[in-house]
Amino acid sequence: MEGRLPWVRYVHQISGALLAVFILLHLSNHLFALFGPNMHIQVMHLFRKLYRFPPIEGLLLVTVLTQIITGIGLAFHKWKNQPAMVKLQVASGLYLSLFLVYHLWAIIMARFVWLIDSDFFFASAGLQAGPSAYFFFPYYSLAVFSTFVHIATIHYNKSMHALQLKQAAAPDLKRIKRQTSGILLAGLLVTTLIMLGLCGYRLFSDI
């Protein structure tokens, strides 16, 4: 597919870069849950001034749908006869696609059907107690960590391709592996902190 339709890969990369900006804001917002629900909601309202501005919100919706459609298309091409890191890139991307579909549906239902705010309490409700926590804990934590896995594997695979082209030395390979490990460790830390915040752990009380 990439050979016949190179624009699909290009569109996927562009939409991915745009979506990464929103994801950075969104994950940063969730980190503020460590300071309490009020702080989380204050930061959420600040960010919403940007991504709920109608033109940006429309662009975000198109970007999410584009990322899902092109990503699934590329996944079918990349899955066969590929190294483990490429398969890990595909697997993390597929999980993120499934997460985005379900998450987008939940946000639309909350906003336009249930008429409730998709704030901290909406996001964390399924994590507090009961059987729902067995679904929502891996659902959220895998989504956050898969984001970093996807970034790490993209970095690794692109860097390895560049190394093969220029036949670089072993120190370059060690540097790439070190950078990839760093991204994964950062992802593990961010995932842990976000899940602690959503589950009720507080570094400080609400101001």
Overall description:
The protein is mainly α and 207 residues long. The chain has seven helices and no strands. It has helices spanning 6-31, 37-51, 54-78, 84-113, 120-128, 132-166, 170-198. The mean pLDDT is 90.
- Briefly, what CATH class? Mainly Alpha
Radius of gyration: 19 Å
CATH level-3 fold name: 3 helical TM bundles of succinate and fumarate reductases
What does the largest sheet look like?
none
Number of domains: 1
State the helical fraction: over 70%
Question: Which runs of at least 5 residues are low in confidence (pLDDT < 50)?
Answer: none
Oligomer: single chain
Q: Report the sheet-strand fraction.
A: under 5%
- CATH level-four homologous superfamily name: Fumarate reductase/succinate dehydrogenase, transmembrane subunit
Order of helices and strands: HHHHHHH
CATH architecture: Up-down Bundle
Distance between the termini: 53 Å
Main structural class: mainly alpha
Q: How many strand units?
A: 0
Q: Overall 3D geometry?
A: globular
Would you summarize the structure shown here?
This protein is mostly helical and 207 residues long. It has helices spanning 6-31, 37-51, 54-78, 84-113, 120-128, 132-166, 170-198.
Walk me through the topology:
Blueprint lengths: L5 H26 L5 H15 L2 H25 L5 H30 L6 H9 L3 H35 L3 H29 L9
Helix pairs in contact: 1-2, 1-3, 3-4, 4-6, 6-7
